[in-house]
Amino acid sequence: MLTPFDEFPVHQSPYPFSYVPSTDTAWDDGYFFGVLSPDAEVFLYTGLRVSPNTDMIGGYAGVVHQGRQTTVRVSREWRGDFDIGAGPLPYPFIEPFKDIRLPLEPFDGADLAFDLHWLGRAPAYEEEHHLAWSRGRRTTDQTRYSQSGTATGWIQLGDRRFEVSPGSWYGSRDHSWGLYAQRPPLAPSPKLLPPKEIPAVRRAFRFWTNFGTSGSSGFYHLHESEDGRQVLMNDTFGTPFSGGVDRGWDGHTSFVSAEHALTFRSGTRVMESAVIRLVDEHGGRWTQRFTNVGSPWSPIPIGYGAGSWRDGGSMHTYHGPPNHTGNAFVEWDSFDVSVQPWQHQLYHGPLVPAQGTEYLARVESTDPSGETQTGAAHIEIFIDGRFDPYGFTGEANRGHA
Fold first, then answer.
1. Tens of pLDDT along 22-60?
2. Nearest to residue 84, comparing CAs of 299, 305, 322, 327?
3. Hey, what's the torsion of the CAs at 64, 65, 68, 73, to 10 degrees?
4. CA 345/CA 52 separation, integer angstroms
5. Which of 68, 74, 125, 314 could form a disulfide with 86 if both were Cys (CB 3.0 to 4.6 A apart)?
């Protein structure tokens, strides 16, 4: 089946874009966008993923503000309508990498609507290719890029309206495609297969950030083993460390190493603050100090895993014919996330331990000359199981399904 993208001479296989070179239901392609302000204590998140092998496109939009996380989910069949978006959540690309319009049209019953332009501040950063294997099968084979930006427009949350403008609002995004990880309910039952291969080194820590200040922006991520080593791992992320800082579109400097010192809310794995010391490719030393603002939000309600939708499915499964003007199936909910961790009730029954992993933070960034600039950051933190540097033992309250 031909798609609008087949009009352009950019094919990298002898097939139309509606065909992907894998029959695995874990193959998908999609975006995340964040628009955030520490002053307003608002983190707006939105994204979508196309799942060609289930013929579905699923998306989400939400806000965390004053300890409450509100999320709208949209879904529709993909083939037959290759527009980027579903129902009230389209994604018009005005200028790739530089201006992406993010509207959520108002609809009956929902407390959220917005009309934003996400504006890139610097080129996207292509992460190292992600590869992982288990028992001879490739389980992750994915490309991802990340980008920092800002935004302009408005957000309506209940009776609160937020005016969004560059300078006080910041942007975060990523785009990934390929095999990432199989997720229930489309993953085979573990009871039917031999145990998963135990990796030689297990990842226990992930710190990922897009940050922006008055004069610079950037991205970096680091991953460590249970004993705190930054080493290559057979994992969905795998990369020990990479990233850099940009001053506009033509001023990139790569980071080559990072050390971290995090503090946590008493008795939890909820980050309160972080100090990251970085060395760049020229030997320059940077210090970034992050402070958590409000409650981190959880990816569970956005729809990736089983039970995140009311019928027990995920964004990759079919939820029924359209129930909204247009072509989409739409639902929404709102949860109190002010106390963390908490027990989250999945829609197909189970209670699961949950904690927000996506943080809105203030940042103070000091460059090698000693100049300090302030701004905001999106931080993603996973600390799973044992992690010796901070004395964590046992299983974590995982923030993702």
1. 999 999 999 999 999 999 999 999 999 999 999 999 999
2. 327
3. -30
4. 29
5. 74
